[in-house]
Design goal:
Number of strands: 0
Number of domains: 1
Strand content: under 5%
Structural class: mainly alpha
Order of helices and strands: HHH
């Protein structure tokens, strides 16, 4: 279980770095374009910022789990929530393909 927590923490940390980098780059583009007078939406930088905060929080929870300090059950549930959501989505997509005979429409 400790190996799985370490691997997931590293994956979450990589996702944090990626979404943080993308948030910074999109914020730079947003402010550069607004200074030049172009119409730009703040939606994409905000999505990346929120994802970076969420993955950062989950990474911190993984760090606390890895150090062996006592954590509550809710933190353990939050740690495995992103992986569970991805696995449920993959299972749903497989069920969708199987039940429709391989046709998406």
């Amino acid at each position: 279980m400790k190996v799985l927590q370490t691997i997931l923490s590293l994956m979450y940390g990589g996702a944090t770095l990626y979404t943080g980098y993308m948030a910074i780059m999109h914020l730079f583009v947003y402010f550069a374009n607004t200074r030049l007078g172009h119409e730009e939406s703040f939606r994409l930088p905000m999505i990346y910022l929120i994802c970076a905060v969420v993955f950062g929080t989950v990474t911190f929870i993984g760090y606390k789990l890895g150090t062996g300090s006592s954590v509550h059950f809710i933190f353990k549930a939050l740690f495995f929530l992103p992986v569970t959501a991805i696995l449920l989505y993959v299972l749903w997509a497989i069920l969708l393909v199987i039940s429709s005979g391989g046709k998406w429409n």
